[in-house]
Design a protein that fits this description.
Order of helices and strands: HHHHHH
Oligomer: single chain
Helix content: over 70%
Shape: elongated
Radius of gyration: 18 Å
Structural class: mainly alpha
Length: 142
């Protein structure tokens, strides 16, 4: 009987089967983030405001925390990190914009930060979800 090695396609299929559940969770999380962003586009909320404070994104972050141990050491872990960083950096920029908005001089800068972060959030959700569909890892920051 032939041993299955790391280069053998049977091992690759087995690995894909093991990641089917976590990959489905990643799709759910991207879908929830996209739903939040879409609600920011279609309602009076901003994209980044809906992304950070919307229930779908909050549920996605809870799922992220609850399931991250299942993907540790796999290419899917990069998607968990991508989504985690997208959420918290958006929250940080929204907080900075809020502080800028308090000052009269900072209002235009705050509005630009809110719009820019909204576009950035859309980019992160779309790029991440497309990479997941292609079964590609996300790049890690330097």
């Amino acid at each position: 009987m032939e041993a299955i090695t790391a280069d053998n396609s049977d091992n690759s299929n087995n690995s894909n089967d093991m990641l089917a559940g976590p990959r489905a969770w990643a799709h759910v999380m991207y879908g929830l983030h996209a739903l939040s962003a879409l609600s920011g586009i279609l309602t009076s909320a901003t994209v980044v405001g809906a992304f950070v404070f919307g229930w779908p994104s909050i549920i996605a972050i809870i799922i992220n925390v609850a399931t991250k141990d299942q993907v540790r050491g796999t290419w899917l872990a990069t998607h968990w990190r991508w989504q985690w960083r997208s959420f918290w950096f958006a929250a940080l920029w929204l907080m900075i914009a809020g502080l800028l908005f308090i000052t009269l001089i900072g209002i235009p800068t705050a509005l630009l930060a809110i719009i820019g972060t909204g576009v950035w959030v859309l980019y992160r959700v779309i790029r991440g979800w497309l990479a997941l569909l292609d079964r590609r890892a996300m790049p890690l920051p330097l």
